[in-house]
Design brief:
It is a single chain. The chain has 14 helices and two strands; from the N terminus they run αααααααββααααααα. The chain has 358 residues and is mainly alpha-helical. The chain has a two-stranded antiparallel sheet with strand order 1-2. The longest helix has 27 residues. The termini are far apart.
């Protein structure tokens, strides 16, 4: 008699823990490395260090009025450093940006004074000239394929010579005439060079423009298609062109954006001092580029932010005014800037290697 065996239901035990299956993606990096990967972290730490250093070594820096002066000095650099930084992210840079500021101011001043017209006519004419200079630089770069270093170096020399020669030809002097009595001067001064009171401290309007432009540039870079185009053409323009990015248009527009910045700063200088020296502006282009580099932008393009150059410009303003408040010899200013630039480059290099290390 056969016995039927009934199998007991098998009780499934949970599988032994083992290594998790990988789906081919890189595991999420630690928070510290993700923070260090940001291009503006190094310069932020540097700006804090410079601020603390002068806060201790130069007691006048602690005064609100002194800080307003530092921020004003930083803003005149920072407004131009922003479009220069965007251009560098796009893979190019502009050596003519410093003298272009003076070209813009000279244009507005001479058209207004010599033609006895409302200063706003000169302001608009200067804007058109500045945008045309930027468009010319961009067109030459994309049309010829020459490095922007060579193209803008040529523009720098042309503008430097034209600024001096035309000013002496028109005014008989190396400086423009005083435009403070021209129609519209008061309105233009309010727009480009006014001040307002905050707790008894006079704050220049350029500080507000600087921060607003920085916020707008950050939004453009991170939230718009145009921002993606900038990073794409700076990273690899041929790959960007292959996926439909208008490389030539993007590069030309970035050079024109530098022209807009030169116009704005030029108008501020004109309506702050009422006259313009034709030989000024030489060397300022290196300050703008340095502020962008200190802010985390790479000369090779495709990497950077708009916030980094804000801190970079602040460091420049802090050092420039801090040396004065500390009572040191101002001849050391350029030496400080050189050390600061080399230090920032080394910090940015370390940050990038640390952030990409697995």
């Amino acid at each position: 008699m056969g016995m039927t065996q009934h199998a007991e239901p098998a009780v499934s035990s949970p599988p032994a823990p083992g290594p998790k299956e990988s789906d081919g993606r890189t595991a999420q990096r630690p928070l510290v490395l993700r923070v260090l990967a940001r291009p503006d972290v190094g310069v932020f730490l540097g700006a804090v260090a410079v601020y603390v250093f002068f806060l201790v070594s130069a007691p006048p820096v602690r005064d609100a009025g002194s800080m307003a002066n530092i921020l004003y000095q930083s803003s005149t650099i920072g407004i131009m450093a922003l479009p220069v930084a965007l251009l560098m992210i796009g893979g190019e840079f502009d050596l003519s940006s410093g003298v272009a500021v003076i070209s813009s101011a000279l244009t507005a001043s001479m058209i207004s004074y010599q033609l006895t017209m409302n200063v706003w006519v000169g302001v608009i004419a200067a804007l058109l000239v500045s945008l045309a200079i930027g468009a010319f630089n961009g067109w030459m770069v994309v049309r010829t394929g020459l490095p922007s270093f060579l193209v803008t170096l040529g523009t720098f020399l042309i503008l430097q010579g034209v600024n001096l020669a035309v000013t002496k030809l028109v005014t008989g002097n190396v400086a423009t005439d005083d435009v403070s009595n021209m129609d519209g001067f008061g309105q233009a001064k309010k727009v480009f060079a006014s001040s307002f009171d905050v707790g008894g401290v006079q704050v220049k309007i350029t500080i507000v423009y600087w921060l607003v432009f920085a916020a707008l540039a950050t939004w453009v870079l991170l939230r718009t298609r145009y921002g993606n185009w900038i990073f794409a053409v700076g990273g690899n323009k041929e790959s960007a062109r292959a996926v439909g990015v208008p490389v030539n248009l993007t590069k030309i527009s970035l050079f024109m954006l530098v022209g807009f910045g030169a116009w704005f700063v030029g108008m501020h200088q004109l309506f702050s001092f009422n006259t313009v020296q034709s030989g000024e502006g030489v060397g300022q282009e290196l300050i703008y580029i340095s502020a962008a580099v200190i802010g985390g932008c790479l000369l090779t393009g495709g990497y950077g932010s708009a916030i980094g150059p804000v801190f970079g410009a602040f460091m420049f303003g802090m050092v420039q005014q801090g040396i004065v408040y500390a009572g040191w010899n101002p001849d050391w200013f350029k030496a400080f800037l050189g050390v600061m630039l080399l230090g920032a480059v080394l910090i940015n290099l370390w940050v990038q290697r640390t952030a990409t290390r697995r």
